[in-house]
Protein: Alpha-mannosidase
Organism: Oryctolagus cuniculus
Amino acid sequence: MNKIDDNTAVEKSKKKLRWRITRGGGLFQGQLSMLQEKIDHLERLLAENNEIISNIRDSVINLSESVEEGPKSSQGDFSQGAGPHLLPSQSSLQAHPADCLFASRSGSQHPDVQMLDVYSLVPFDNPDGGVWKQGFDITYQEDEWDAEPLQVFVVPHSHNDPGWLKTFNDYFRDKTQYIFNNMVLKLKEDSSRKFMWSEISYFSKWWDIIDTQKKDAVKSLLENGQFEIVTGGWVMPDEATSHYFALIDQLIEGHQWLEKHVGVKPRSGWAIDPFGHSPTMAYLLKRAGFSHMLIQRIHYVVKRHFARQKTLEFYWRQNWDLGSVTDIFCHMMPFYSYDIPHTCGPDPKICCQFDFTRLPGGRFACPWGIAPEPITLANVQSRARMLLDQYRKKSKLYRTKVLLVPLGDDFRFCEYTEWDVQFKNYGQLFKFMNSQPQFKVKIQFGTLSDYFDALDKADTTESKNGQSLFPVVSGDFFTYADRDDHYWSGYFTSRPFYKWLDRVMESHLRAAEILYHFALKQAQKYKIKKFLSSPHYTSLTEARRNLGLFQHHDAITGTAKDWVVVDYGTRLFHSLMLLEKVIGNSAFLLILKDKHTYESYSSDTFLEMELKQKSQDSLPRKNIIKLSAEPRHLVVYNPLEHGRSTMVSIHVSSPTVQVLSASGETLEVQVSAVWDAERTVSQTAYEISFVVHIPPLGLKVYKILESGNSNSHLAEYTLYNGEAKDNGIFSMKNAVDAKEAITIENSFLTLWFDQSGLMKKMVTKEDGKHHDITLQFSWYGTTNKRDKSGAYLFLPDGSAKPYVYEKPPFVTVTRGRMYSEVSCFFDHVTHRVRLYHIQGIEGQSVEVSNIVDIRNSFNREIAMRISSEINSQNKFYTDLNGYQIQPRMTMSKLPLQANVYPMTTMAYIQDTKHRLTLLSAQSLGVSSLSSGQIEVIMDRRLMQDDNRGLGQGVRDNKITANLFRILLERRTDINLEEEKNPVSYPSLLSHLTSSFLNHPVFPMTEKFSPTSKLLGEFAPLASSLPCDIHLVNLRTIQAKMPVQKLFSKFTVESLTPSSISLMHSPADAQNISEINLSPMEISTFRIRLR
């Protein structure tokens, strides 16, 4: 995104928006080459900058027009919001000093309940609530239903994890297929029976093996309302560690499959097992066209508080929503679990007696010691009264006389006998209850949407003055605890290797999707039959589904059995290999000057990735490119929608190397050592690094050859606390004075390190200020109590203890033209801090890489702590799913583990002067336990189960790569009132840095020497998109974009708006030529190019 480099900032003004162009910081003294580089760079980008400034001006004009003229949406409304989409007035559009251009919190509509206030208000105590242990005693009067009977919907369901204790395939073979087969038979026996299902990964697998007759029977059950698909995603995803890209992708995959094969559109969301709930998921469901959703795993104290206030049903609104356009109705289940003992009412001992699968002699028993009884004429009255009492008590926690009672559990209804005992015994109870006028109850089997339809009717009937009965709630529901101090913050980090692999998979899938689309259009245009469009599409589909499967709440969370984790990893790895072929073949077609010569090449991948991963549990290694006087081609792909200057590093066989651009210009190159081991320099491989300038979504070709006629510069090394075995090529000095300060610098920053190679100070060159920012490692142990940390739970034995080492680690300091870095080698972490000598985005942050290996540790968790002078007090900020920022409060009334939250892409702390952001390339647990600190847990090795069903600890640790960026920014002209608001935004620089971190460029080398001439570049976009728009999932300000001018090599044939998963189109959908985008919104369009 370096078109505007470091030169764009947003100023805050109360009534106007203005943009300021600022210059970057100082230069190395005496390094005239740096000055020349910057001059060249600025000259190259001057024209592009003018274009960007013009776009910015147009955006501001359009923004002003949209505010003055009111909302003009051509995209339709797919929702039943609680109110119209209100654009804020012009005076409310304040841009915070370094923040993206979002509206500030001066909208007129505020939620009734803000979760930050709830967490501050409730005592988080745990008194004995009686039969409802975590709640309170519930009473009622017999005559409460005289005027209106209690309407009860008993909703049969089966929760099927796509992998947990068994693999996905094993569960399907042993259990899930029989649930579906029995469903078809048993629902047909009685039209009053109902059933519902969520996970399309299983449903599609079954669909593929059944005959047409059975498929028709399923469609008939869907049509008559006996069978309902709820949510309809590929899985029921985790909501803490999943990125919004993957959440959307698995939703699209499920909804598109349903549309193609069954023709149904899910209406209601159902999430009973994710370990905490994110408003991001609520937003995505809303934008998919849903109006209602259900959640379950919420902190037991929050449930008790909501139950007392009767706010268990509410409209969930996004923190950043100034109106009510994101409102979605949400039902929160009140009790401990989603199983039958905890869903009929507050007393699990009684509810368990109505789980007829637990009849004596069955597979299950009631742990409370009283077994169910078959319903007979002799006991139906007493049993009906007992059950009705529970229903009435549960209904007292809600605001209407409509009650939801789920009836199911994990992998239920897989035996036909369970269908019989549940439906026949409940059938007798229903028949008796409905025949007794004095019971004042109407009870039936139903689906989730049956319940919500009845509830909407009750709300409309009982609401006053058009006001809904239900409150509006904003905020999130992390961190989850199900009992005592058992906080589920461990899984935010568990199995971090696979959390890293997940994000690698996401970036590859997105890159492959975009390149494949462009290549397919070119193949169609030039009638190139050899382009493997069908196999490539199959590879894309498989990758989408494997990525979707991994978003399951026992997959990306790291909470499955060891062999199940291997199954997930193998699926991701297999798809990565296939995606690399799609990327390589698509890119090759796009850069061929004569497209028809593509036919003459082997169907094997012509271009291969410069990084190669050998197995599902290993880190990738760089290929060594063998050089000669004959040039080798390097193709670099930029998957971002912004033009980009970035550094590429590859391994080559010779230190005498020349790199040429497509125009023949010799590029400046840094040649660095490749370390075979901690203290051994490779004799056969060298790293070369150079800056590439790639157009948005574009490809560029570079030539690399062995030559003495080059512009290459050898990196210089200083070694501390030891010596290295070098190859005689590089200058390697041993530090003479052990107390000598270790520093590295670039145009923006100077970093100071201690003798262990750990950062201790940062100097910002723009203002010359020194900032005490230190980096340390630490250990957490696990408690000595009976319940200990495991895959789910974090139960530490107190505060973290410093990472202690007997002797100082070996430290290498690298100084070069393209980057400088400090590397230190501890027993459990190889730690590297790097500064890039690049003007623009990447030069302004500090890159931190940790290769973590705790395979020999015992019940320990390793953390990285960044400490600063920032007066953040007890407030910090974490992202939710890479989509939005959630303010957090570190609360002393809570145990340490409760103050750990999920971080998908970033966390930051701030005061009135500065903001310190940690940006992450993988999901991990993060906290700020003291003012000025950010702490991230990088890996955990735990020897025991934590009694949540997994039956094992976490012992399968891998050597894991964690990649971060640290960004220090000034805050000026701050409105202190902003600190009180429940909303915050990343700065534009932070947003772009995160994009660069999560969407790196793809360097590719040729497998075979091409006989055809290659294009110098492929540039599909006419220009970069505005810097706050992200393609595929559009995140934007109010702006208009002429679509016809978007693509330079293609013509837009049609563009129509759609819901986020393409399930719905607005009734007035028509081909449009202009896209209107609102702050924070994700918009989806069907586009056809030619």
